[in-house]
Amino acid sequence: MYSSDRFVEPYLDSFARMHRDSFGRGVSALPKMEDMEMLEEMLVQLFFPGHQGVSSPKSLRSTIEYSMESTTRLLYDAITRALRYEHPERSEEDCAASAEAAVDRTAEKLPEIRRLLKLDAEAGLEGDPAAHSVHEVILCYPALRALTVHRVAHFLYTIGIPLIPRMMNEIMHSRTGIDIHPGATIGESFFIDHGTGVVIGETTVIGSHVKLYQGVTLGALSIPKKGCGLLLEGAKRHPTIEDNVTIYANATILGDITIGHDTVIASNAWIKDSIPPESIVITARPEIKVRPMRKQRQ
User: Fold this and answer.
1) pTM value surpassing 0.85
2) Structurally, how many domains does the chain consist of?
3) Which of 21, 75, 96, 254 is most buried by its number of CB atoms within 10 A?
4) Which among 146, 151, 150, 126 is positioned nearest to 136, based on CA atoms?
């Protein structure tokens, strides 16, 4: 019978000794991606009751009570695991107490987050002629799903919760094709039309009434993280997009620059310098050549 025992020891040598010694505790504390997937569904039900479908009619209060309990319990367990993994020197009780405080702060923030999401849904209705109702935006538009998770993840990020915010947004990245780092700050009435391929970096700041189309990148210039000292961790390195800006498909905006308010960025623009307010940015029209197809002789 085949046995792989002889390969185990050489393979174990590829792990750091410290990690090997504390492996059991680390694994028990790791948050789970499947929990984040479940959390996404719970958040949608919590913010938009009834849009996920229910097996039997319930009162709004009972629906909210159930969703609130399920969401906060799952979030508490996940944050506790994350804190234990990131801070093995802390006791389990201490991590649990910090997780409870973080969940309490998040629960207090939920009414404000729901207010913002309602404005996002209304922006989707106003910004897309193909949308016929707010309910259609909530049910069908990937951007609203991504924002539902991002606005919660961003709050957790701002209060210093490790791992969980990034896991939440990576779940949305895989489900929607929209990649928003939890550190990105997004204002009111934000809308992403279509959404696929949108990338929004960690230190991006987006104002109110901003609209993006598919393929837009709000990114950073490629600079070595260490060694040359050009980039300090946490430094502002992504764009600031002021109020009432529209950015069309596949535009790329890089670096710590500012796109002034009431500006329109045309498709396929490549921008590395700040743009003044009330501007229209277009790229040179490419030359198009048309010639007749050659017909093959019979």
Assistant:
1) yes
2) 2
3) 75
4) 126
